[in-house]
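REVIEWER CHECKLIST
Item 1: Sequence provided? yes
Item 2: Single chain? yes
Item 3: Sequence as submitted:
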Amino acid sequence: MTIDIPARLAQLGMTLPSAPTPRGAYQSVVIHRDIAYVSGHVSRTAGGIIAGPVDRGTPSSVLRHAAQTCVLRALSALVAALPVSSSVERVLFLRGFINAAPSFVNHGAVMDEASAVLHEVFGDNGRHARSALGVSSLPGCGLLEIELTVALTHERHPHPAETRRQP
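Item 4: Structure as written out by the authors:
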């Protein structure tokens, strides 16, 4: 099943931000064979960083907003890097780094918010393996940073000899 990511997001009331530009000596997305590795994207909006650290008192609405922001930034980078004949077949892995206070222990709940966005966009193909890691800081003091690994599918274009009519 091929999903038009921007169209699906529009159905869900979300839009892709502009594809982020790397802020260092790396690429936003590397595609090797049929796997796309999406570099880490921090919870940065047009208005600034959704900052951490997260603690027991952080409202769930802030966690949801940070997670959605990270996923949309990662998908934006992915869409910008996809070859024309490629699409996402399924999400394989989601890794999250949570800027957390030392006493915070509910890292999985933060990542559940990011997982939920991927499930909404890709349905069953958005179900993935995952890691949730607590860290003492992130770039710009961001609350969350995520990385994605996705499998790609390519539209098969028939060889010209295959399109000739047989007598």
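Item 5: Key structural point noted by reviewer: The first strand starts at residue 29 and ends at 32.
Item 6: Recommendation: ____
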